[in-house]
Amino acid sequence: MSKAASLAASTKLPLLPPLADTQPARGAAWLSRLAVLVFLAALFLPGWRYANDKYMLPEFTRYMALALFAMSVDLVWGYTGLLSLGQGLYFGLGAYAVAYSLKLQAAAIENDKPMVAAPDMALPDFMSWCRLGEVPAWIRPLIDLRLAIPLAIILPTLVAAAFGYITFRRRIKGVFFSLVTQALLLAVFTVVYNQQPYTGGVVGMNNLAKLTLFGHKFVGLSMYLLTTIVTVVCFLGCAALISSKFGKILTAIRDSEYRVLALGYNTAMYKTFVFALAGGLAGLAGALYVSSLGTAGPDRFGISFSIEIVVFVAVGGRGTLVGALLGAILVSWANTTINNMATQYWPFFLGGLFILVTVFLPEGIVGGIRKLARLLLRPRARKAAPLELEGV
């Protein structure tokens, strides 16, 4: 049996659907594509609906950044079967890289100093409180956003690649992999929390300058559009990756890694690549998040935050990129609504929601909609090939 045939068998996908079901399958695939495009277009509606709302528009901007983060988690967990409980590490690295830049810029504006790296550059407030004589040399260059933004993507990618290479080469997976990722996150959280002169400590970095790129200051609607466009572009890129042969190998690893190993594939390198990619996307999400929120704190490195993102993916539908976005937006909106009424009830709601979804809707919202669509549109083709964009 060829590699392609064996791989198709490992992912439980027939090589060719029954001839009689080809036309319905194609029609359903086009309907699926149309639904995805409508969903992506609908992501821009809050920008129009809340264009003049100074509270809800920043909230939806934050939701979109979290949606990008959830999509990165879905690549690792939903498509590759690697439940990481420490993805907040890469999100936090991206957030702090840009936060340093915006904080240094705010200090320069306040003290009427040039926005250049220099020993006598203006000290951010948290460094002044801790009586540092000057900005540390390794932080100074970050005042330039042209360095900070690429670093917010590259640094998490490299850290994730190094961690993934060591972990996957040693065949660590399952609950042990989840615990290792959580332990690494806790270690970094402790460093960030305790090193107040350099990270802001428990207070973090507040009153950041507005994100300014290409001479334009991104605030309000422009910040929402920037975040949404980046999220949509990343979605399309991830969808193309998942629909390729590489994506099929990832799902095969998720379903039966030993069979993929027997076919001669280096599964450790595939997992390392997707883990590094997810790290880069998480860093980008963190950069957008902190630019919108205007503050960065050690809570982004907290274990509870990483677990919350996993809940987003589970609610929306694991193994579906649309589900990751939908789950992040809906649960984040619920978070805002419930916190406005009674903050102390949110953890109970989140835990209960995760239990209900796990028990009654294990495939999430998108999985439930997909099952309903199959019942309504393809009653005689339930055993045919899945939709062409089923992984999206």
Break the fold down into its secondary structure elements and pairings.
Elements: H1 3-10, H2 22-42, H3 45-49, H4 56-77, H5 88-110, H6 125-129, H7 145-169, H8 175-194, H9 196-199, E1 211-213, E2 216-218, H10 221-243, H11 245-262, H12 267-293, H13 303-316, H14 321-341, H15 346-360, H16 364-377
Antiparallel strand pairs: 1-2
Helix pairs in contact: 1-11, 4-10, 4-12, 4-13, 4-14, 5-7, 5-12, 7-12, 10-12, 13-14, 13-15, 13-16, 14-16
Largest pleated sheet:
2 strands, antiparallel
CATH topology: ABC transporter involved in vitamin B12 uptake, BtuC
Mean pLDDT across the residues is 87
Radius of gyration from CA coordinates:
22 Å
What number of domains?
A: 1
CATH class: Mainly Alpha
- Per DSSP, what share of the residues sits in E-state strands of 2 or more residues? under 5%
List how many beta strands DSSP finds: 2
Tally of alpha and pi helices: 16
